[in-house]
Design goal:
Helix 8 links the parallel strand 3 and strand 4. The protein is elongated and about 80 Å long. It has 347 residues and is an alpha/beta fold. Helix 1 crosses helix 2 and helix 2 crosses helix 3. Helix content is 45%, strand content 15%. The longest helix has 18 residues. It has 14 helices and twelve strands.
Length: 347
């Protein structure tokens, strides 16, 4: 049998630093009123002894758990297959790690999971929540609002009463779509199709609106729009539809890079050369996907990782500036990051 060494106590740290237990407690829990020389002595003693604060006891003092829930309103099969989520989680994780907070990942497979997630958030296990990939009929925003948990959303809200002033981070989806279509028009393309994302998500609606903004002046044809779902299979289905309806199309703006994978596959099957016969442009600029398609994909870049970092940063700033169930502090509820077209071979 091996004997487990006992954990250093608050009293042991106090004895090593030559200060009172109360002084150690204030330093460890981030309290004020301790002179800097004493703070340094306590920190040195903590490091030397390998003292780890008791989280339960610390939470009683600070009312903080140093944990943030990341809620993705998608099934795990979608989350782990789509690089978009990995990039956003990486940004969130970096920011939380820098602020000594833990990431608690919560996924929703179906309607039953919404109530489970809401109960968990309301149970006081985390300091706040970062929520993204919501759908327009999703009850989660209302449930989270009712739980009184400080929250930052990923994506422009499109929900009802009670969450209109929600703090969110998004990219300029509509403006990016306009850039994409103008780029195709600048190449001399005139029969430009659009494959949408899932239209129960605001990002897909905004990208469709951006396409229509530009094509309204260029003679938009409803037959040139086909509905996708942000997946390669959805891109394939929509591209087949478009080729049946409008075989004369000469360009496609696709709502995301994953769907563009399916589009390129179908065009290749039908003997359409890209970009000679049909120019293709995606959205996201997810590496290495966009660089490794055949041909490499011209796409609209949004900084997905930075969006994740900014979501976490806004939440942490709000927690530091408020307490309890107060919303994160932000001068504007929405932060919208710019987009830009990245030129490669496909368009």
């Amino acid at each position: 049998m091996t004997e487990t060494a006992s954990r250093p106590t608050l009293e042991a740290v106090a004895a090593r630093a030559g200060v009172s237990r109360a002084t150690v407690s204030r330093v460890v829990n981030g309290g004020d009123g301790v002179r800097e020389p004493l703070v340094e002595r306590v920190r040195r003693a903590v490091e030397e002894l390998g003292y780890v604060p008791n989280q339960a006891a610390r939470s009683l003092v600070t009312r903080r758990h140093d944990a943030v829930a990341v809620v993705i309103a998608e099934p795990e099969t979608r989350v782990f297959a789509d690089p978009f989520f990995a990039l956003q989680l990486r940004g969130i994780s970096k920011e939380l790690t820098a602020n000594d907070s833990q990431l608690v990942l919560l996924l929703t497979e179906g309607r039953d999971d919404h109530a489970r997630v809401a109960r968990y958030l309301a149970g006081g296990h985390v300091d706040g929540a970062l929520v993204f990939s919501l759908h327009l009929d999703d009850p989660l925003p209302g449930l989270i609002h009712g739980a009184g948990v400080p929250t930052v959303f990923g994506g422009r809200p499109g929900w009802g009463e009670g969450v209109r002033e929600a703090v969110y981070v998004d990219c300029d989806n509509r403006g990016g779509a306009r850039q994409a279509v103008r780029h195709l028009l600048g190449l001399g393309r005139t029969r430009i199709a659009h494959i949408t994302g899932a239209l129960d998500q605001t990002s897909a609606v905004d990208r469709l609106d951006g396409y229509r903004d530009v094509m309204a002046d260029a003679g938009a044809d409803p037959a040139l729009v086909a509905q996708g779902d942000f997946t390669p299979a959805g891109g394939e289905r929509a591209m087949r539809e478009l080729l049946e309806r409008r075989p004369d199309l000469d360009a496609v703006f696709v709502a995301n890079d994953l769907s563009a994978l399916g589009v390129l596959r179908v065009l290749r099957e039908h003997g359409r050369r890209v970009p000679d016969d049909v120019a293709v442009i995606g959205f996201d600029d997810m590496l290495p996907i966009a660089e490794q398609t055949d041909p490499p994909l011209t796409t609209v870049r949004q900084d997905i990782e930075e969006m994740g970092r900014l979501m976490a940063r806004l939440l942490i700033r709000g927690l530091e500036g408020g307490s309890g169930g107060e919303a994160p502090v932000s001068p504007h509820p929405g932060v919208v990051l710019p987009t830009t077209v990245v030129h490669r071979v496909s368009a």
